[in-house]
Design goal:
The protein is α+β, with helices and mostly antiparallel strands. It contains four helices and nine strands, in the order ββααββαβββαββ. The protein is 20% helix and 22% strand.
Length: 232
């Protein structure tokens, strides 16, 4: 890169577009002392700058899922949904499930047919009622960790597990019910927060962690006793 330079900025108009070896000694020294550090810095940054968030997201999508080898899921309830499509890699399957891309439901898991290179996305997981696991060597099952973990991270805003009792043992009121407590936390108003059934949730990311309205008319709401996930 230093072998051939445009030198008009030096004030020496007689030496424009000359090879470096033909430039006056002072000009060569000026160019090398100014450009070498710049080039070295550029090389250093190209090596040390971490990948962009988009790149990290693409690489880390599968980390959102728990893999169970040689297992798929069978549903016995018609109210549960699934969709299948041929895709070449589990990464592509995971990306669609993570973003709910092109799916008419909220994806909780997918099974990958290794022989046919086919994704099967599910609106359910292995913890859903009316669903059973099936041993099948052709498939690997991938379930979103947020839906199956029994602990919370931080304030528990991403928790989507199935705990449905408060810390004092009171059964939670369903989110789509106004009995015994009226409220504004309707599933339709908090899309993406998974306000399903009567599971403990923290839709606003408040201090205290996941909570619910209770089935006790005397206790409007209470936090749930869900431990923090281990950082070890």
């Amino acid at each position: 890169m230093l072998a051939y330079l445009v030198t008009g900025c030096t004030g020496d108009t007689s030496s424009k577009h000359l090879p470096l070896r033909d430039l006056p000694a002072k000009t060569r020294i000026m160019w090398t002392t100014q450009l070498v550090p710049v080039l070295m810095l550029h090389l250093f940054l190209s090596i040390t700058i971490p990948p962009s968030e988009a790149q990290k997201q693409r690489r880390s999508t599968l980390h959102e899922f728990k893999k169970t080898a040689e297992i798929t899921l069978i549903k016995v309830d018609r109210a549960l949904y699934s969709k299948a499509k041929k895709l070449n890699t589990t990464e592509l399957c995971a990306h669609r499930c993570s973003k709910n891309k092109g799916l008419p439901f909220s994806c909780k898991a997918f099974a990958f047919d290794k022989a046919l290179k086919r994704c099967h996305w599910f609106s359910f997981n292995s913890m859903t009622n009316a669903v059973r696991k099936k041993q099948d060597h052709a498939f690997d099952l991938y379930e979103k960790k947020d839906y199956i973990r029994n602990c919370i991270i931080g304030k528990g805003g991403s928790y989507k597990g199935t705990v449905s009792v408060t810390k004092s043992g009171i059964k939670c009121q369903p989110w789509d019910s106004m009995i015994p407590h009226e409220h504004g936390f309707l599933p339709s108003s908090y899309r993406g927060k998974d306000l399903q059934e009567n599971y403990c949730r923290n839709p606003r990311g408040e201090e205290g962690g996941p909570w619910c309205f209770t089935s006790n008319p005397e206790v409007r709401h209470e936090v749930c006793d869900i431990p923090q996930c281990s950082t070890g």
